[in-house]
Amino acid sequence: MKRPALLASIASAALVIASAVGLMFTNSTAQASPTASTTTNMFVTYYGWYDNSPPGAGIAFPGLHSSAGGTGTFADPITFASDKSELKAGTKIYYAAVKKYFVMEDDCTECDEDWTGMGPDGGPKFWHVDMWTGGKGGNEKAAIDCEDALTQSNPDGSPKQTPVIVNPPSNETVDPTPLFNATTGACYGGATSPTTFGQYKNGSTCMTDPNGATTSGTALTVAACNGGATQKFGFDGAFLTIDNLCVDAAGGSTANGTKIDIATCSGAPRQQWEINANGTIAGIQSNKCIAVSGTALQLATCTAASSQKWTFTQEG
To answer: Which of 83, 265, 273, 279 could form a disulfide with 309 if both were Cys (CB 3.0 to 4.6 A apart)?
Structure first.
């Protein structure tokens, strides 16, 4: 499953989501949950067709659905992913921020790591659920940007845990507005994922677009930090950009040693990144980290080694 992105710049997403508009209704026809309800603060992230692993609607624990889906009512909850030791398959939850019911039907790699050990977001026993947004047929970049816009973070960029009802009653308010509308590209509540700009420092050097190159295929390097335009990268929750090009794993390879370059933004898996709480920058699909090797940047198995840790300094 998707390894979700973490953004300080979307700390305000809670306010955006809370102001979501749409037709509200109460599902009063479904049967009540047979298990007592509990409310737990969880880190809520989102994934969809394009950043599922592999891309598509496949799920690990088919139950109500044979593939990821659902409308968000009690009778037809939307698929969510988590660690099966955290929430067993078939468990229903309700998330008031988007006014929808969800059902546990899939696995989430980062949720597993956060629950069973010290994962990228916290742990052990760090509550983390990953909600399905769909997106098939829609704009790939817009779909992933929506997922990141809906994900909430604290002002310092750490994951924000918000209340989720486990084994909810059947009469919670439901909003039928989709989390992501593949036809229109609209994100729930008009949520947007703003871009933050700044430099990414590893040790005493910074990620650099050498000579301000604007040609696809140019390999990124590290160089002495200077605060210049060649070191000012944007991040919107899944895509690192500079000079209107996206940071990219060359050739779409996920092998260790693959060079990190810049390319025309396509929203492809090779261009999807997450910035983790431990300072690493990992490919959402590859689960490999951007590492420094000499002055070059390349993919490497994530170990949280010093060569893989980046410190971000925001600039205007």
So the answer is: 279
